Amino acid sequence: MPMKTIPILFALIGFVLLSCSKEEESVSPLDAYPAPVVQVDAPETASVGENVTVTVYFSVNNGCGEFGSFEATRNGNTITVKVYPHYREGFCTQAFVTREVTYTYKPEEAGTYTFKFWAGEDQYLTKNILVQ
């Protein structure tokens, strides 16, 4: 072997050894992030003390995605809702799928309620419901 190739060979071996890591990178599960809401069907009016039923359509990343939970925060009469999916294990179709779930809210006071459903980064689908 020529003398020029020995340093190159050592440099290559050193690069390969140093670039490999025994630590696994942590990957967040898909259900750690909210699913974007693509459509909301809500009534325009409701009554105090009665459940308001809202149909929410959200997108999941594959055929194993299903509804997991809601995260709702209230600021006055504005309710911001995020949908968190759950991904079951097993064989999944690799297609974006839209799922349907019912969100229920029971207003205790009259007024106009604004429901903001998370649809993506800084984007919301908004529905106003007049409660009498």
Automatic annotation (TrEMBL):
Name under which the protein is recorded: Uncharacterized protein
Naturally occurring in which organism (per UniProt): Pontibacter diazotrophicus
Source organism superkingdom: Bacteria
InterPro entries tied to this protein: Ig-like_fold (IPR013783)
